[in-house]
Amino acid sequence: MGDRNESHVTKRLSYESGAALMAEGPQVLHNLIASKMEAATGRPLPEVNVQFSNLSISADISVADKNDAKNELPTMFNETKKMLTVSKKHTVRKDVLKNVTGAFKPGTITLLLGQPGSGKSSLMEILSGRFPIEKNITCDKHYPLLTVKETLAFAHEVGGAEFLREAQEKQADQANSEALEALRSMSSHYPDVVVQQLGLQNCQDTIVGDTMTRGVSGGERKRVTTAEMEFGMKSVTLMDEISTGLDSAATFDIINTQRSVAKKLRKTVVVALLQPSPEVFALFNDVMILNEGEATYHGPCNRVQSYFEELGFSCPPERDLADFLLDLGTSQQYRYQIDSYQMNHPRLASEFAAYFRQSPIHQETLYQMASLADPKALQRAEDHLEKVPVFQQELLPSLRTLLRRQVMVLYRNKPFIIGRVLMILIMGLLYSTVF
Predict the structure, then answer these.
(1) Is residue 92 part of a domain?
(2) Could you tell me what percent of the chain has a pLDDT over 90?
(3) What 3-state DSSP class applies to 256?
(4) Structural domain span for residue 258
(5) Ranges for the ABC transporter domain (predicted)?
(6) Is residue 307 part of a domain?
(7) Residue 394 within any structural domain of the chain
(8) Residue 403: inside a domain, yes or no?
(9) Are 320 and 340 in contact (CB under 8 A)?
(10) Rounded mean pLDDT of the chain?
(11) How many CA atoms lie within 13 A of 191 on its CB side?
(12) Which residues are CB-contacts of 94 (< 8 A; sequence separation ≥ 6)?
């Protein structure tokens, strides 16, 4: 009954503006986009299953001698002593991740939970192909003189809709052409849709700004960064600590939108958060808990509480479930121990990880990882990845887009223009006095 009502609502959506497309909420819109994309391309939506087995990362770090702490004051004597003597340091091997195994499935949104230093960012970096870094690091910052709407419009142009090009190549029948027209209309208004989804309506005509130019607030700038990542048909989305600087309502809206994107568009979404609220935690399908580089749990959210109760830990009614999970494996876990538990409680992260590797939940994950090798699904994913170009725009359209943005940025930099004009006039007057 719910699906029937939803399909009935999607037929009434208007393509006139982003607000009209978002009138019934993100779930209805994403359901419409998925149906039109499948009709236009003539195939199911591409899916990517992320799997990793016994993943370990370690690094050699230099540890200074404790006696060096006495010479921390930047005095001339201490600085001279540092240059003339060699500090007593020794190298220590630190394990960042230890034999982590898991799978992030398409159509689901997974919470990556852990204390700072637990290995969340390292796991995301290696899964996204950014670890180790072999080339120079470049920071892709916002253009401070562009407005929020212009920033997102540029991201939409260069992130281009490759599925539209694929659909244009088919043009098989009337149903395909009707779906293609609907996708064109939605694509033209998609920047406005993203503005609506992330609550940027009030600042969409405000310049982004930076430390020297006043613009949007820090939380709004973070949402602009998240909005830029929404463009382009990405099959996997990894988001690390996106809630920093955001209030709970904004975080809930973002995660709720990502949940809808994952479910309707068959994407794989992984979000790392430090202390999610109960409402935000309830939006996730799965959760992976990392502690000191070890996976102490990876499975459905609705089974995590009962799993740790079997280990002798109970979450009090006044305690948030996410905070309870973060306290396990630390000195605070004694508050949750069940006194009547017959066996010894695990205390170290390695002990929690050893218990989890023997659990039925972990065995189910291993079975799913072994059985997901469907040849047809693998072939569809391979064909999809081969068709995705490195650059979504061709040379001339890309050049036109970049020139338009650069002219816009240059025109708004009034101090630079005035300074250049004055410099040219002064230099001209100086040269004219020579003759």
Answers:
(1) no
(2) 28
(3) helix
(4) 2-49+101-387
(5) 81-317
(6) yes
(7) no
(8) no
(9) no
(10) 82
(11) 19
(12) 58, 59, 60, 61
Number of domains in the chain: 1
d(CA 199, CA 254): 9
Q: Which two tokens stand for residue 98?
A: 């230890």
pTM (2 d.p.): 0.81
Alpha helices in 42-170 (DSSP H): 76-84, 120-127, 148-158, 162-170
Amino acid making up residue 258: Q
Q: Which of 63-67, 248-252, 397-401 has the lowest mean pLDDT?
A: 63-67
What CATH code is carried by the domain that includes residue 283?
A: 3.40.50.300
* Cis ω for the linkage preceding 276 (within 30 of 0): no
81-130 pLDDT, tens digit per residue, is 666 655 556 677 888 899 999 999 999 999 999 998 888 989 998 998 87
Cα 105 from chain centre: 16
Instruction: Specify the long-range contacts of residues 164-171, CB closer than 8 Å, at least 24 apart.
Output: 164/40, 166/41, 166/387, 167/37, 167/40, 167/41, 170/40, 170/41, 170/42
- Cα(141)–Cα(36) distance, integer angstroms: 34
Q: What is the mean pLDDT of residues 378-399?
A: 75
Q: How far apart are CA 308 and CA 414, in angstroms?
A: 61
pLDDT one-digit tens code per residue, 72-81 = 667 777 777 6
The helix (H) or strand (E) run that includes residue 381 is helix 375-387
